[in-house]
Amino acid sequence: MATLIKGRRVISESAPPPEVGEVIRLEPADDSASVADRLDRVARIEVSFPKFGDGRGYSIARLLRERYGYKGELRAVGQITRDLLFFMESCGFDAFELREGEDPHEALAAFEDFSESYQASVKRPVPLFRRRQ
Question: Given a cut of 60, is residue 133 above it in pLDDT?
Fold first, then answer.
């Protein structure tokens, strides 16, 4: 059973029932366009972060949310630590499967590390401050 943060709450979850919908797992080298035609049947997409320094999953999340309009659960899995959660959420992730040994209650505090984000995000597509031309 995985320890998850979902909806900014700590939950424990086993596999979803099969009638809920398809679960897709994307690895860093996978093309998000390959699943775009079946997103309406997908209950959850898991994006793998096999090592801390591999940021390709952030791009996959943005593409799924912004280009392909995916509205379902987008879960980050793999080497997920507290330090990444705030940035992952800004890219569109709404669920995080913490790696073994991470304190989920301590990880929740990551969402409050920054009061504002200057960059555009999935939730706020216009940056906080726009440079005047």
Answer: no
